[in-house]
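PROTEIN DESIGN WORKSHEET
SECTION A - STRUCTURE
LENGTH: 172
TOKENS:
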């Protein structure tokens, strides 16, 4: 939903979903296998040419650091400008990211305002732009938890993704 909003209501021409094999701030054991997450991302975006799933981090050193990925993308696609899209709940822990000051100074951030997100020292940074998008209290954690509790979460996901999750018995 957020990526759809971004391509409709901002100057972005496309949104890339970078599937990360190892986010240093997440416990690897809590994630599905890389290829399964990439498959779900591909299924989710396959009907919109403005959205694209990418396995680019699968071929970069682990763990995956945003600054390294963006450096690689900038070299590989010099004609493109890369902008980070993140939820406002990300900003209070941005200081934990590798070279976060460099990220803030070299890249624009489009921030989706998450309900109940804490204020951060980066909220007023000139490269941090809050997007006036409708607030939705849906997160991947919420969806995974609902599935694990046996709830029908099909209305929160693209139909094809929901069917894939059911077929593969993910999160249950």
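SECTION B - SEQUENCE
RESIDUE ASSIGNMENT:
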């Amino acid at each position: 939903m957020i990526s759809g909003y971004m391509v409709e209501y901002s100057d972005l021409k496309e949104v890339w979903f970078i599937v990360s094999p190892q986010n240093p701030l997440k416990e690897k054991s809590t994630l599905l296998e890389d290829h399964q997450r990439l498959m779900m991302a591909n299924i989710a975006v396959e009907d919109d040419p403005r959205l694209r799933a990418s396995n680019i981090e699968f071929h970069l050193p682990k763990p995956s650091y945003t600054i390294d990925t963006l450096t690689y993308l900038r070299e590989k696609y010099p004609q493109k400008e890369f902008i980070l899209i993140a939820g406002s709940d990300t900003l209070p822990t941005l200081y934990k990211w590798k070279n976060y000051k460099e990220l803030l100074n070299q890249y624009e951030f489009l921030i989706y305002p998450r309900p109940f997100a804490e204020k951060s020292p980066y909220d007023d940074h000139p490269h941090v732009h809050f997007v006036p998008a409708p607030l939705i209290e849906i997160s991947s954690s919420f969806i995974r938890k609902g599935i694990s509790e046996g709830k029908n979460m099909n209305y929160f996901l693209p139909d094809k993704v929901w069917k894939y999750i059911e077929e593969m018995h993910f999160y249950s």
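SECTION C - NOTES
Residues 30 and 171 are 10 Å apart (CA to CA).
The first strand starts at residue 15 and ends at 18.
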